[in-house]
User: Fold these one by one.
Assistant:
Number 1:
Amino acid sequence: MEDNFSSYHPVISFFFFLFVICVSMFLMHPVFLAISFFSAFSYNLILYGIKKTLKNNLLFILPMMIIIALANPMFNHYGVTVITYLPTGNPVTLETIIYGIAMATMFCEVLLWFACYNEVMTSDKFIYLFGKIMPSISLMISMTLRFVPMLRNHMRVIANGQKCIGRDTSNGKTTDKIKNGVKKVSILTTWALENAIDRADSMRSRGYGLKGRTAFSIYRFDKRDRAILIVMILLAITFFVGNSTGNCYVSYDPIVKVKGIPLDLYSCITFLSYLTFCMLPVIVDLYDKYKWKALRNNINKKENRGYRLWT
Amino acid sequence: MKRYFNVLIIALMLFLLCSCGKSTDELISSKMTNEPGGSCTISIKCDTLLDNMDRLKESKRDFVPEKGIILDTTKVDFFKGASVYDILKQVCEENNIHMEASYSITFKSSYIEGINQLYEYDAGEKSGWMFSVNSKFPNYGASSYQVSDGDNIEFVYTCDLGKDVGDNSMK
């Protein structure tokens, strides 16, 4: 589903994801975690729809979260509130459990952001941004990002082909199954290597990365890009200044200490700026949809002479 | 194919998870028997931290007691074959003092990481817990030192590889 934020200039999308992913990787404050998780999830909803988002998250991210939250108290034992003792004599503490949950949330929200990044920052945008500065690296990155889905598709093709000539992995002796499986993987590897060389050759023959070569692009840095960039920079500065005052400090070791709750002026400003920044794509998209609807209603009111443009 | 691949990945992740932690199985097995083996005294102190408060992490400062004594000298009756680690564990559980230890495979002995939330490296890279028996610092782990009757065990926090608590074996 194409959302409005994706239609902005690639610099805007890249700056947004760079900031949001880098920052949410280091923030452990519960309010920040909640904000980032909520915004990432709602942006996922816009990009993928309810069904796909829930499917992706319940299948992979939720079990991962539970594993991380449970694993942390097994390996860390600091904290004042002892719940029980492990057979080794080390304590299981409430602090490590809380930290585990916070860490799991952080991990999860970064994955959610990356899911959005994949959808918004397509490889043509990436190449457009970095093709001039570092041609070979940006081509390699976009090729590697494409690798997993491409290999998965081609594996299916190979499997079908092998099935036709009777080298199937679904029946037969176990040794035969393994033999056929290995053959499939070897075919895939050969194909992948050849494909990569082919692609490199074809890019070279087109003069990719040569000096003075221009590339066609449909991106233009216009007024709304400038406006949103200014807003983003202002919000980012407010956030960094607010965060550096120490009013959003949190520590889990050895006592859970959370500053900024209840809200004071500084922490309120910091939280608000972070919330607005993370919600920017959602706000932009919802505003766009609202505007579209309002304009359509206007037309309907005006064209009230026996026929309607839209129903 | 896909299912096997998933199982493989999960197995790999579990393996990685397990290898992250230090092996702790050996912490449980001690050579303790059921016969009484006498009594010893034990104390836990961190008075070196009082002089190095500025180097200690800010979040840990509340955990240094006023005179640096976490546990005053206490008399403990122990079973035959008990190690210094066994006695520390027993004392900490009785007095509700937090303690964390891990088994180090290289030295085949348990290593005291932290007592009362004060951990190794909390006051600079030369800091951590050491123990002495009858004012001598044995140069091996707490679970490989067998306690004998009348021993005087002291756990001390050092901020300078033992030099500030009277051990000069590390140079």
Number 2:
Amino acid sequence: MNITQLSVFLENRKGRLAEVCSLLGRHQINIRALTIAETESFGVLRIVVDKPEEAAALLKEHRITANVTNVVAVEVPDKPGGLAGVLKVLADHDVNVEYMYGFVEKASDNALMVFRFDAVEPAIKVLSDNRIRIVSAEHIRGL
Amino acid sequence: MDVAFWNREIETMDRQRLTELQVTRLRDTLDQALHTPFYRRRLEKSGIRSGQDLGRLEELRALPFTTKDDLRKSFPFGLLAVDFSEVVRLHSSSGTTGVPTVIYLTQDDLDRWTDLVARCVVATGCTSKDVFQNMMTYGLFTGGLGLHYGAERVGMTVIPIGGGNTQRQIRVMKDFKTTVVHITPSYLLHIHSRLAEFDTRPEDLSLRRAFVGAEPHSENTRKKLEDLYGIDAYNSYGLSEMNGPGVAFECVYKQDMHIWEDAYVVEIIDPATGEVLDDGQKGELVLTILTRRAMPLLRYRTRDLAFLHAEPCPCGRTHRRLSRILGRTDDMLIINGVNVFPSQIEEVVMAVPEVGTNYQIQVDKVGALDRLTVKVEIYPKMFTGDAALLDRLKARIAEKLRASITINPRVELHEPGVLPAFEGKAKRVVDNRQEM
């Protein structure tokens, strides 16, 4: 039930983000969700793409420093309180969220939330037990 | 111009008597040096078994040079010429990486160093009525304590404040009506830029003189300092291997620094060949200290480039004048008065597993002060995607660097392949500062 996120180290240089995204675009890789964690001097770009293995190989070939991380994608009703509901379930079961970010899906009334958990397996169990829909890698590929 | 002397007899001694005094003291120094295994080997190779074997001063040239590396290799006691129990003071290079160097002083040695510094202080016109704010670093650095003891000997009121905390420095200058400061030229400039912040104008201060040293600076910078504050600024030269400050100092005429030849044999050499050059020719300053029993140093290569003036000074002193320091023969940097070797930085960077072996050192001038930036490339395999980890890595590298070089560098993390890579002896240092 994990999906693959790529974390890309970006130094704080003009056009660097555009370069990386353009590279992915040229190789027909589609970004499903993204966020950037920035600090004073560099950023970490986190992306969920449709073809993660290809993307990882592509970045490596172009000597772009990137790492693969396991995250969980969850469907959340796209209405006020949708996210809060999911977060309450996690908090009630002592599941710690390291970070998260979200996208609105085109073809449904749901938003896609990407979670990075400290402990993945227990988190997946809590979500499943509470009938919160976890999105599979295949689904991400086909979005 | 009023000229005062701390020790008129020595300071105005005619050249012949001065040379005779040097020979006498050099013979004693050689005898003392023979107590150390390091010098015994070398001196015997040169045919010297006792100080009496030295005839004329020029025979010193037959001896090999002593280098910083020799000091490192002898650390800690290889050059100590007395019983350790006789040492009342030692000064050492600080930092946690690389091999340190150390100098030792007996009580007599310390008294003679203090006397030299007192001589310098009086040469600038200071008296016991002056209030002296010593803004150089205390501790293992020789700059603070060196001037402190000499200024006290003259009877000045000494404020042992050390460096930093600009607000407090200004406050103290006003509270106690400081008339003299000992400081780096860049810090003195910096303070001027901040006076207004603390509702102070130069006229509100009682400053009349500044002893400036620890970093090379031009005549223009000296004049600028004098104009900004309405003071006289005196150039000062020293190095810890030769005790510290007090080796050479300007007199009231401010036409370069009298180097005290009763305490040091001064040579200027061609750094490539070792040939001794004439007055007026630029080369590497080589010093032999004549007044330190605990740790003699013979023909020590300072790696500072300078020349000696042949012409006498209007003040009447017969000790020759040393020019401003014109450069280095090695790659040492001076950042806000602190000596930094690129190799110290390299040693720290190489020991951090998360960064690759490519790095760059950049020095810029920001306002009046120097700023050091160390750029490193992260090692891709160590990247986990965690931004907070990278922040902590940056902080850790900065902390290790600070422990080694004692100043606070900026650290920048870069992607691999971004910094220029060189083969062989990499040109790792980019110094953007213009001559000060």
